[in-house]
Amino acid sequence: MTSPPTVEPVLHRGIACFKLRAGGASAVVARLGAQVLSWVPADGRERLFVSERARFDGSVAIRGGIPVCFPQFSGLGALPKHGLVRTRVWNVLPQEPSGATARVGLEIRDDADSRGHWPHSFVARIDVGLREDGLEVALTVRNTGAAPFAFTGALHTYFAVEDIAAASVRGLAGCEYRDAAGGNAICTESAPAVRFDGEVDRVYHDTPRRLALQDGPHALEIGAQGFPDTVVWNPGAILCAGLPDMEPRGYRRLICVEAAAARRQIGVAAGECWRGSQSLAVA
Ligand code: TA6
């Protein structure tokens, strides 16, 4: 008989985190940024990339895991890049144990600092659920103000791969994308699998709900709900060399496949709520 799922507070890389265990799988979720930092399915293989030079002091976002971008994706607006919540410490929500899933919930609300950038009242919540066979991360955004607001955002997942040369992302053929590394040209994906040879930074529009990441002989299924778009990013050697929190060859060991709302803003009426999620499973 498998033991019941557990959640325990731990220090990981010197910061307050939760360690989730379910069956033979585990995950680590930091209060800083509500960021998942590790996901090890029952086969024992770490599936998330975290840079050896990542910083954990909140001065910059942690380079790796699953950063939460809200209420702005990338530079699509006047806010700091990728929004306001990556370097904040989120509050922990009480959780009810449920079946075979280990769960942790974290939330953050607007404050004087966020309102200085973005004049809206909100609660953003991250729910992480770990099962023996997969991980789900959900972002819920509630508008707690009296007027509607609109946002862009993403779960900016950094997958670990053995070697970028043998890795690819499938399921995007036929999708339109904005090539952010190619002058923002609007293109259509013609390849059955996206491969990496130099910087790739693409916002795919209205993508299928199921994609696959191939990493040599290992494969993952990547699902998304609520988020209409998918961003695929790898910095390549040149951009990577200029990122102070990346080891120079680190780009060879990561692919970001991000559940995103980037092309169009998501509108949330006063008192209403929006939810989007990404789910990961070993294929
Ligand atoms: O999601 C892709 C992207 O917007 C890229 O343009 C790249 O800059 C990346 O995010 C990482 O951004 P960061 O602010 O974390 O360095």
What does this structure look like?
The chain is mainly β and 283 residues long. The protein has one domain: Beta-galactosidase, Chain A, domain 5 (Distorted Sandwich). Strand 2 and strand 3 form a beta hairpin. It is built from two helices and 21 strands. It has helices spanning 112-117, 236-241; strands at residues 6-12, 15-22, 25-30, 36-40, 68-69, 91-93, 102-109, 122-131, 134-143, 149-155, 158-160, 167-170, 176-179, 185-188, 193-194, 200-204, 210-215, 218-225, 229-234, 254-268, 273-282. The strands form three sheets. Strands 6-7-8-9-21-18-17-12-15 form a nine-stranded antiparallel sheet, with no helix packed on it. Strands 5, 10, 11, 13, 14, 16, 19 and 20 form an eight-stranded antiparallel sheet that branches. The two termini are 24 Å apart. The chain is globular and about 45 Å long. 6-O-phosphono-beta-D-tagatofuranose binds next to strand 19 and strand 20.
Strand order, sheet with most strands? 6-7-8-9-21-18-17-12-15
- Poorly predicted sequence stretches spanning 5 or more consecutive residues: none
Ions, cofactors and other bound molecules:
6-O-phosphono-beta-D-tagatofuranose
Briefly note the CATH topology name.
Beta-galactosidase, Chain A, domain 5
Gyration radius (Cα, Å) is 18 Å
CATH class: Mainly Beta
Enumerate how many helices there are, as a single number: 2
Helix content: under 10%
Give the total of beta strands.
21
Name the helix and strand elements from N-terminus to C-terminus, one letter apiece: EEEEEEEHEEEEEEEEEEEEHEE
